[in-house]
Amino acid sequence: MSQEALLNVVDLSIELTDSVPRRTLVRDVSFTVRQGESVGLVGESGSGKSMTVKAAMRLLPRAADATGSIEFEGVSVLDMGRRELARYRSSDVAMIHQDPRAHTNPMQTIGDFLIEGVVSAGLQSKAAAIDRAIGLLDEMGIKDAPRRMAQYPHQLSGGLLQRVMIASALMSEPKLVFADEPTTALDVTVQSEVIAIMVEQIQERGLGMLFITHDLDLAAAVTDSLVVMYAGTVVEKGKAHDIYAGPRHPYTAALLASRPSTTHVKRLVSIPGRPASAYEVPTGCVFAARCPFATELCRSDRPVARELDGRVVACHRAEELTHELKTAASA
Ligand SMILES: Nc1ncnc2c1ncn2[C@@H]1O[C@H](COP(=O)(O)OP(=O)(O)OP(=O)(O)O)[C@@H](O)[C@H]1O
């Protein structure tokens, strides 16, 4: 791929320093998001997706220690000084959160909410910011934008408020957008509409996107590449359509098999066992306890992530299971 790397994460590990022994939450995670590229960070609850994104924004809890490297356009995010970090957070990257209500102030109008960040960071004058906010609300398909600017969050539906959040993320003209489960808090009837608008707006502007979700189907539909995480580690990564068409890690195949089908009736299967956090998994493969294909080797030796047919996979048996995994995923 020729586009420039915006975000480059290499061997990121995150540990909690306030527990004895230290708890590992994320282990040796590496991935890249390029200009104009959408990357899906996919995994069940506790797999470390949010911690990884928090680290990329330098917003980890005080007791969490990040090692490895996170670079934005070649500059180390972990080493940024106060001013550099403020500029990075206010104008290079933006975040769309899960629950729009939790990230708005009920006492602040939509207009003030939209312009606050860029005006206080000195990026735009108040008049220019108001114009831009109205223009963006318009592009988000929000009718009567000037009237909406004067309203308060409780006067907007969840779907409408999430469109405001997308507009807010675009106010500073960022290069990279982190979208953390942006529609899980919304009514199912508006979810796909909001996703479609978000993806369209991000693609039209040629921005990079890191899309965090537990929904592999959705991620495969809206992203170029996937990074599949389990228990704080990357188990598989590669082109979204390749992974969707033929997963090479049993966890990816299980995620695909457990999705509801829209074309035929099938029994909904769930992955047996519960998702584990990085510090809970014993030696061996992180997924061994839930993997139907696990052998003694899988339980004793942790597989090293390696290149396989244009993707990266951390499974001892990836080659020999190619056919089984494809069948299991599409069953
Ligand atoms: N503030 C925190 N302090 C300590 N540990 C935390 C904190 N937040 C999350 N964790 C732990 O870090 C690990 C990774 O959690 P993380 O929230 O990154 O997972 P996730 O994949 O984003 O899951 P979810 O989809 O539920 O948000 C889990 O073991 C979780 O319990």
Automatic annotation (TrEMBL):
Record's keyword annotation contains Protein biosynthesis: no
Cleaved signal peptide residues: none
Alphabetical list of PANTHER family matching this protein:
DIPEPTIDE TRANSPORT ATP-BINDING PROTEIN DPPD, OLIGOPEPTIDE TRANSPORT ATP-BINDING PROTEIN APPD
Q: Which UniProt keywords apply?
A: ATP-binding, Cell membrane, Membrane, Nucleotide-binding, Transport
Its ancestry begins with:
Bacteria, Bacillati, Actinomycetota, Actinomycetes, Propionibacteriales
Question: What are this entry's molecular-function GO terms?
Answer: ATP binding
Q: Which InterPro entries match?
A: AAA+_ATPase, ABC_Ni/Peptide_Import, ABC_transporter-like_ATP-bd, Oligopep_ABC_C, P-loop_NTPase
Record-given protein name: ABC transporter ATP-binding protein
Domain (ABC transporter): give its ranges: 7-256
Similarity section: Belongs to the ABC transporter superfamily.
Can you say where in the cell this protein is located? Answer: Cell membrane
- Membrane topology summary: Peripheral membrane protein
Q: State the PROSITE patterns in the record.
A: ABC_TRANSPORTER_2 (PS50893)
Query: Is the keyword rRNA processing in the record?
Result: no
**Which NCBIfam families does the protein's record reference?**
oligo_HPY
